[in-house]
Amino acid sequence: MLSKRIYIVNGVIVHHKEYITDQDFINWNIDKLFAWKNLELLCMKCHNKEHKTEKGYRDNVIIDEKTGKVKIIDK
To answer: For residue 7, is it within any domain?
Structure first.
């Protein structure tokens, strides 16, 4: 799939059009987290530009693979 913002670039990261919050993770807000209408595939450059960061992703959210419980780490 191609990034909508840059032509002929492979998308590598899923972007939430409506930004997600810590509460969305804690409450498992399915409509915001996983609804196709809220997702788009972007290249890393476009995703970082959208979030105005070099990193482009959140590193303060941990999801337990076995239980699905979400932990937010304060940084």
So the answer is: no
Structural domain total, the chain: 1
Q: Which residues contact 2 (CB under 8 A, 6 or more apart)?
A: 8, 9, 10, 11
Domain that holds residue 54: 13-72
Put simply, whether the predicted model's pTM sits higher than 0.70 gets the answer: no
Q: Can you tell me the distance from the alpha carbon of 44 to that of 20, in angstroms, rounded to the nearest whole number?
A: 18
Which three-class secondary structure state does DSSP give residue 38?
Answer: helix
Summarised one tens digit per residue, pLDDT across range 1-32 is 545 555 445 667 888 889 888 888 888 888 89
How crowded is residue 25: how many other Cβ atoms within 10 Å of its Cβ?
A: 19
